Amino acid sequence: MRAPVLAVLAVLLASEAQAFDVDRCGLVVPTGEVGHVVSDLSCPASLEAAVYLDPSATLSLGGHRILGDGGGEFGIACLGSCTVTGPGEIGAFKACITASYARRATAHDLEVHHCETGILAPDIRATNVFAHHHEKWAFGVLKRMKGVGLTADDNGLHGFFGPKLVL
User: Residues 75-92: pLDDT tens digits?
Assistant: First the structure.
């Protein structure tokens, strides 16, 4: 009786979201998994994104920085709804964090800076995010945004841009 219980437990543990190390630019965090940044990353413009997040993926910066050289498209490119957690820093891309296809970008405990746009998504949920020195806007939302503990400072056009903002 003990062997079947152990076998079921092993299957359940194997099916949980697996975490893996993000130790270089251009990696993809698969659907439902958690990527842990293990050191500061400096990413060249030759890559479209420093890190890609598949739908429902999470990136944990763990106190590290992801910086571009000023010419790259995306710091974090969400290919569906995604979550980026800090503490940590993302900067020097055209968009620090972007989510496409009518999805949500969730951001916690981050500093995003020196991008054309800070966080750009149809739906944004943000907590304790400091967004500064963006060419256009710190937070650009197409549908709605909810946030608490947000600071948008020294941005070109807008701190917050979108049709429905609850801050």
Answer: 999 999 999 999 999 999
Could you tell me the two tokens for 69? 């050289």
pLDDT tens for each residue of 27-83: 999 999 999 999 999 999 999 999 999 999 999 999 999 999 988 999 999 999 999
What single DSSP character describes residue 85?
E
The three-state (H, E, C) secondary structure of 37-67, written as one string? ECCCEEECCCCCEEEEECCCEEEECCCCEEE
| The model's pTM | 0.87
- How far out from the chain centre does Cα 34 lie? 12
Residue 106 in tokens: 């969730």
The three-class DSSP label of residue 3 is helix
